[in-house]
Amino acid sequence: MKKAWARRALGASIALAVGITVSGCASGGNNGGGGVSGDGEYTGPDVEVTFWHGWTGGAAPKIVPELVDEFNAEHDNITVKAVPQEWGDIAAKMPLAIKAGKGPDVAVLHGDDLATYAAQNLLLNADGIVEGLGYTADDFPPGVYDKGNYDGVQYAVPWSVTPLGLYVNKEVLAQAGITDIPTDQESYLAALEALKDVGVQGEWVDGYVFTGTFEFESLIWQFGGELYNEDVTEATFNSEAGVEALTWMTDLVKDGYSPANVAQDGNIKALLANKTAFNWNGVWQTTNEAFDGLDWAAAPVPQIGSEKAVWSSSTHWVFPSNKGQDENKTEAAAVFVKWMNDNSLGWAETGELPAANSVREDPALLETYPNLQPFMDELEYARYETVAPGITEANAQIQLALADALSGKKTPQKALDDAKAKADQILEQNRAKYGD
């Protein structure tokens, strides 16, 4: 589901220095509103809540308005007005709109954008909201709730998660006499070698964000490494684990398991055209209608390293700190968030997993969307975005390193060292821009 990252070029950094005071939203009605309870009730005056989101076009054209309409029908004192727009447009418009007091009352952001907004005081402190709604980290997959925490304050409520998985063309795999989907390095290499023996390059590896960067990040974590140090002041993706991860990917080309210079989307197209057996790709591909009629399966990504790990993105609800923000609207927006999470089972049709454990544990989810099982199994060890202001600019250096190494322009070590040097400069600039 590339639309979730298509705005990266535009929204990699929100460089506006804005002076908005962060304030909390009380959960017990002490701020003039009717209050928010764990039952998700709002008892204040009638309000219209503005909701900005980036699911436009083919992303989710039906379910968003359907859910909003259903919510509005069930709540006499709250009317939610959804304002869909491109993710890049949100990144460009929302900071200025919030400063002018014209931003939304609630919005959805990706995990790697949260700290950038929080550092600029563009979001309300949501500690009181989260407490009032009864949410804790235990209500969501391990690790994702904390991505909404910046500098000791909770600014967000998780909405969805999108882990990477292994897509398998079973017909191509059968050409090599293989019926069992590989689960670890040994079985994966054995499958690639068997496929090579029958003239099939089993995994087409690329140097793009989709899906090379996500594969690399999964691998570096599997080999025991980290992308950055603990306080995100230094890139560490050029570590021994990082080099091992990138070498694994370049060796796929070197050993003939992958063609060189795979074009963007070339790997998923090759899988669909019966030219390859494996593709590391996101859960969003489960909704790809091109799979109709293909003999395929999804599985957890194989454990190549010593640890189980897999990349995942996430989206989160946030409450903008508009100049003169109406506290009643914020409280009503919190009720909307709770209702949406509670009623998010159908969100799986967009190719995203609902973040709420209570929804994913509903048997109806897998009965309706059985292909989600392997992705749900991965959530116990999924890894999410780095929390740091302006981090997407530093992350972009990883993709450049992959492109250099996979094209043979640089060795994995050299490519990652050069990327680290640039990333460290960006991190230093971010500290000056957003505060240390």
Report on the structure:
- The chain has 436 residues and is of the alpha/beta class.
- It has two domains: 31-161 and 313-366, Periplasmic binding protein-like II (D-Maltodextrin-Binding Protein, domain 2, 3-Layer(aba) Sandwich), CATH 3.40.190.10; 163-312 and 388-434, 3-Layer(aba) Sandwich (D-Maltodextrin-Binding Protein, domain 2), CATH 3.40.190.
- Helices cover 38% and strands 14% of the residues.
- It contains 16 helices and eleven strands.
- It has helices at 8-11, 63-74, 87-99, 114-119, 127-133, 170-175, 185-197, 209-222, 240-254, 266-272, 327-342, 357-360, 363-368, 373-377, 391-406, 412-434, and strands at residues 47-53, 78-84, 106-110, 149-150, 153-154, 156-169, 278-282, 296-299, 310-318, 353-354, 382-383.
- Strands 1, 2, 3, 6, 7, 8, 9, 10 and 11 form a nine-stranded mixed beta sheet that branches.
- A hairpin with a 2-residue loop joins β4 (149-150) and β5 (153-154).
- The longest helix has 23 residues, at 412-434.
Key structural traits:
single chain, 436 residues, alpha/beta, D-Maltodextrin-Binding Protein, domain 2, 16 helices, 14% strand
Summed up:
The protein has helices spanning 8-11, 63-74, 87-99, 114-119, 127-133, 170-175, 185-197, 209-222, 240-254, 266-272, 327-342, 357-360, 363-368, 373-377, 391-406, 412-434; strands at 47-53, 78-84, 106-110, 149-150, 153-154, 156-169, 278-282, 296-299, 310-318, 353-354, 382-383. With 436 residues, the protein is an alpha/beta fold. Strands 1, 2, 3, 6, 7, 8, 9, 10 and 11 form a 9-stranded mixed sheet that branches. It has a two-stranded antiparallel ribbon with strand order 4-5.
